[in-house]
Amino acid sequence: MDSIDWIKVRFNVLNIESWMELPKVERKRKRKRMESNRESARRCRMRKQKRVDDLMAEMGELQKENSEMVGIIKLTREQYLNVEAHNSVLRAQIVELTHSLQSLNHIINTTQPLTFFYPDNYPLS
């Protein structure tokens, strides 16, 4: 037996001896306190485990919510890009139609006879 084992044995013997030297009332009180401490430690471990379980459940819910939000963001971004592309097409059409309208107005203004000198009921020919 090495010296560390000998110290452990000697310490246990001393504890047993000191325990036996305590009066019966104090031994009972000490035993009750030890049981109470064990029960308190057990309750503490249970509370801690419940807290860990609750946090794990909350983490799972938050991860699920996060992945749903990532999906919504992805879909919204795709829709935004589609709308932006459609807006670009519409802007190009506006430019084309504006040029066409200006051309048609120019044609109308140059080919139409000047009617502002003639009253409405006066024939031109």
Question: What's the quick description here?
Answer:
This protein is mainly alpha-helical and 125 residues long.
Structural overview:
With 125 residues, the chain is mostly helical. Helices cover 86% and strands 0% of the residues. The model has no long low-confidence stretch (mean pLDDT 83). The longest helix is centred in the middle third of the chain and has 88 residues. It has one domain. The protein starts with a helix and ends in a 14-residue tail after the last helix. The chain is rod-shaped.
How many helices in DSSP terms? 2
SS class: mainly alpha
Percent of residues in helices: over 70%
Shape summary: rod-shaped
Region (Disordered): 27-48
Organism: Senna tora
Subcellular location: Nucleus
Main location: nucleus
Helix-strand blueprint:
Elements: H1 3-21, H2 24-111
Region (Disordered): 27-48
Keywords: DNA-binding, Nucleus, Transcription, Transcription regulation
Subcellular location: Nucleus
